[in-house]
Amino acid sequence: MGDAGEGLIDAEARLQERMDELEESRKAAKERGPRVDPEHARQMESLRLARIELQRQLDATTHAARRDQIGQALAEIEKRLTAMSKKK
């Protein structure tokens, strides 16, 4: 009967070692992976979509004053995108 108990203890030890190895590999993968700031990515995507929408409006607008407004807004978005790209 003593042999069966030893086998169970050995199996538990091997299982614990395997769990420790998996945890270490997860930590190593997190450290190696790219560090992407989700807020920065969200802001970049928002600006990119705003630029697309304003460009669509600019193409459809014929009134000169409105075209000037949209052009200024596009310039501001480009400026912000450029500044955010440098922050990476």
Oligomer: single chain
Morphology call: rod-shaped
Helix amount, in percent? over 70%
Counted beta strands: 0
What is the C-alpha radius of gyration, as a whole number of Å? 28 Å
List the helices and strands and how they pair.
Blueprint: H1 2-32, H2 38-60, H3 64-87
Structure overview:
This protein is mostly helical and 88 residues long. It folds into 2 domains: 1-33; 37-88. It has helices at 2-32, 38-60, 64-87. It is rod-shaped, with a radius of gyration of 28 Å. The N and C termini lie far apart (63 Å). 2% of the residues are buried. The model has no long low-confidence stretch (mean pLDDT 87).
Features:
3 helices; rod-shaped; 88 residues; mainly alpha; 2 domains
Brief synopsis:
This protein has 88 residues and is mainly alpha-helical. It has helices at 2-32, 38-60, 64-87. The radius of gyration is 28 Å and the shape is rod-shaped.
